[in-house]
Design goal:
single chain, about 170 residues, alpha+beta, six-stranded antiparallel β-sheet, 4 helices
Length: about 170
């Protein structure tokens, strides 16, 4: 590809496509929606086997069909959270330093074949005593494509600051 065919981003100094935002680029009240993600049977089995979740809701089809209150194949609650985190991750890719904790509440199960997305709102942005990092808190509402709320989680994360000498991008 010749240089004449390259399309530059608004600020090439910002870094490669896919790099997350710095804490000082986030603004309280900023909202965005992620792309969707459809739950598949292998998603459930990968988590159940890797986390050694021997709950009959996820390992015994007869139990689910005959005794469970929730019918069909559905994701363990932590899997919905993990899938939501994966959808949000591009916003903090290579800039996140630490996960500091969160509040979470689940409302209903995500069934195999259903698609979910995440509505994110930045609720707090503040510096730490170290000037090269800050804390970003958000409210993340996980929904189905029909708008039903699956989970709400409110994580706080430590995020790197903009490199010295480079002001944060304007929003």
């Amino acid at each position: 590809m010749s240089d004449s065919n390259l399309v530059l981003l608004p600020d090439p100094a910002r870094g490669p496509v896919g790099k997350g935002l710095y804490w000082d680029e986030f603004k309280v009240g900023w909202k965005f929606r992620t792309v969707g993600r459809t739950l598949r049977e292998p998603d459930i089995m990968h988590l159940v086997h890797s986390a050694i979740i021997h709950e009959v809701l996820f390992t015994n089809r007869d139990y689910v069909e005959k005794e469970s209150v929730i019918k069909g194949r559905f994701a363990p609650g932590p899997l919905v959270y993990l899938m939501a985190e994966a959808l949000i991750m591009p916003t903090i890719q290579a800039t996140a330093i630490a996960f500091l904790g969160m509040e979470t509440k689940s409302y209903r199960a995500l069934q195999v074949g259903e698609t979910m997305y995440v509505d994110v709102e930045i609720t707090d942005v503040r510096p730490t005593k170290h000037k090269d990092r800050g804390i970003v808190t958000s409210e993340n509402v996980v929904k189905t494509t029909t708008g039903e709320v699956l989970q709400i989680f409110k994580p706080s994360r430590m995020i790197k600051g903009s490199p010295k000498g480079k002001p944060p991008a304007e929003t």
